[in-house]
């Protein structure tokens, strides 16, 4: 066998091996961060329960300052949504799916490019002696695409710092 044929066989084995390993990787992903904000839950809730207010503190604009966003006619309440279109983040929609005033919000993130990739997000507020503990979590299934399984290995390191930056901005807004 000549060297080129050996190379092709080796390359094919490597590809099959990488795909096989992908299916051994976790199918679920979770990113979660928590902090204490020295403000009452109702003050923080006003910021997290309105999509337009997310522009002031969330990581979305940091990820792509030129991102285009549109909103449902009502930007608060169950069913309210924001849609985005971005060179870096593709297209998608985030919709409020559950709201408990001054306690928590839940939302669903749907990527339009990758229909199988959906995240469920929650932001929970808990009154403590030190202020309000806020916990922000995104979780979801990665589907059967081997590339998404490898992507899942890095998602906490990519999204976690954006959550932390969002908390810092939220502190600046609500601790005044």
Topology, element by element:
Blueprint (H helix, E strand, L loop, with lengths): L2 H20 L5 E10 L3 H8 L2 H7 L2 H4 L4 E4 L9 E6 L3 E11 L3 E8 L6 E11 L2 E11 L4 H7 L2 H20 L2
Antiparallel strand pairs: 1-7, 2-3, 3-4, 4-5, 5-6, 6-7
CATH architecture: 2-Layer Sandwich
What series of H and E elements makes up the topology?
Answer: HEHHHEEEEEEHH
CATH homologous superfamily assignment: START domain
What percent strand? 25-35%
Quantity of strands, as a count: 7
Number of domains: 1
Provide the spatial order of strands within the biggest beta sheet. Answer: 1-7-6-5-4-3-2
What is the residue-averaged pLDDT?
Answer: 91
Share of helix among residues?
25-40%
Structural class: alpha+beta
Q: Rg from C-alpha positions?
A: 20 Å
Which sheet architecture does the biggest sheet show? 7 strands, antiparallel
Residue windows where pLDDT falls under 50 for at least 5 positions: none
> Terminal Cα separation, in Å?
74 Å
CATH class: Alpha Beta
């Amino acid at each position: 066998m000549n060297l080129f044929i050996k190379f092709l066989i080796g390359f094919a084995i490597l590809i099959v091996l990488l795909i096989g390993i992908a299916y051994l990787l976790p199918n679920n992903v979770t990113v979660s961060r928590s902090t204490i904000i020295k403000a009452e839950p109702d003050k923080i809730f006003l910021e997290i329960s309105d999509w337009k207010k997310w522009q002031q503190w969330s990581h979305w604009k940091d990820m792509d300052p030129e991102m285009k966003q549109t909103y449902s006619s009502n930007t608060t309440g169950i069913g309210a949504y924001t849609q985005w279109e971005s060179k870096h983040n593709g297209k998608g929609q985030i919709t409020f799916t559950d709201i408990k005033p001054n306690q928590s919000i839940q939302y669903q993130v749907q990527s339009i490019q990758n229909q199988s990739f959906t995240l469920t997000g929650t932001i929970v507020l808990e009154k403590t002696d030190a202020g309000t503990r806020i916990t922000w979590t995104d979780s979801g299934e990665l589907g059967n695409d081997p590339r998404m399984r490898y992507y899942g290995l890095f998602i906490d390191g990519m999204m976690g710092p954006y959550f932390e930056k969002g908390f810092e901005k939220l502190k600046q807004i609500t601790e005044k």
